[in-house]
Amino acid sequence: KNKDIKVDLEVPSLPTFEDKKKDKKEKRKADRHLVSQPKHETPPPKDPEDDLDDQLKQRLKNFDFNIMEMMGEDSPRKNVQKATWVTGRLALSQQSSRFTLPIDMARLEQMTPLDYVKNFCIIKRRRKKLYQDIFVKHKDKTGQIPFKDLEKALTMVLVNTLTSDDYKRIVELLDISDSTRVDVDGFSAMAALAERLMCSTHVSQEQVDQPDYQKEKIECADFSALEWKLTGVQVNPKIVRILKELN
C-alpha cells in the first residue's frame, strides 16, 4: 500500500514591498545628514610678477600724491584737451596715398582731371581723417568748399610747404576754375595729389631711400609701361600730364 507522505515546511518570511520602500526612505534620510568633508587643496604659487605689479601700482599712486603736494593741488589735474589742428610742417610721404589706373584705359576718355584723382586715388585712413577735418573747417552751408577758400584749405593741410605758385600749378593740372566747388572726396584727392607733388621738391637726397619717401610697389607696377598703356586712347591731355607727374 502507498503511504501518504506528509511534509511540514514553514513558509519563509519574505520582505514585503512596504519594507523595501521604507528602507530606501531611511537610507535617503541618512544620506541627507551626511556632511562631506571639504577638500583642502594647496593654493597655486603666486606669480612674482603680480607682486611687482602691485608694487608698481602703489609707487605710481604715491608718485601722484607727491606731485600733487609739490604743486599744491587737492585733486588730480584733469586732462587738458589739446588742439587738433596742425601747426607745423606735415611729414610728407609718398605712401600716405596710392594712385591707380583702370584696367580699361578707355574709361579715362570721359573723365576730367578732378574725376580721375577722385576715382583712382586710395588714401590711407589716418591721412584721410586729417583731410576730412580740414574740409569740415572750410566747407560752406552747401557742404562744399568754394574755389575762393580752396587755397586756404590746402595750405592748412601742407603747412609751410605749399606756396602760392604750387597752388596755381595744382589748379592748372586739375583744370578747375573760379566756379568750381569741391566736396569732401574731391578735396581729399586734391590734398593727396598736392602732397605727392610736394614730395619731389621737399625731399632731400638723404631721404630718398627711406620707405616713407618711396611709392608703393603696387603703384610702381601699375604705372609701368605708361606710354604703351596710353597708346590708342584719347585721354584728356591734362590727365596725361598728371599721370606723367605721378610716374
What does this structure look like?
The structure is a single chain. The protein is mainly α and 247 residues long. It has a domain at 100-246: Orthogonal Bundle (Recoverin, domain 1). It has ten helices and four strands; from the N terminus they run H-H-E-H-E-H-E-H-H-E-H-H-H-H. It has helices at residues 17-32, 48-71, 113-119, 125-138, 147-157, 164-174, 184-202, 217-222, 226-229, 237-246; strands at residues 97-99, 121-123, 145-146, 181-182. The strands form two sheets. It has a two-stranded antiparallel ribbon. The longest helix has 24 residues, at 48-71.
Topology:
Layout: H1 17-32, H2 48-71, E1 97-99, H3 113-119, E2 121-123, H4 125-138, E3 145-146, H5 147-157, H6 164-174, E4 181-182, H7 184-202, H8 217-222, H9 226-229, H10 237-246
Quick overview:
With 247 residues, the protein is mainly alpha-helical. Helices cover 49% and strands 4% of the residues.
Major sheet strand order:
1-2
User: What series of H and E elements makes up the topology?
Assistant: HHEHEHEHHEHHHH
Q: Under the CATH scheme, which class of the domain at 100-246?
A: Mainly Alpha
Mean of pLDDT? 76
The low-confidence runs, each spanning 5 or more residues with pLDDT under 50, are 63-87
**Separation of the first and last Cα atoms:** 137 Å
Number of strand elements: 4
Helical residues, percent? 40-55%
Q: What is the second-level CATH architecture of the domain at 100-246?
A: Orthogonal Bundle
The rough form would be described as elongated
CATH fold assignment of the domain at 100-246: Recoverin, domain 1
InterPro entries: EF-hand-dom_pair (IPR011992)
Protein name: EF-hand domain-containing protein
Biased composition (Basic and acidic residues): 28-47
Region (Disordered): 1-53
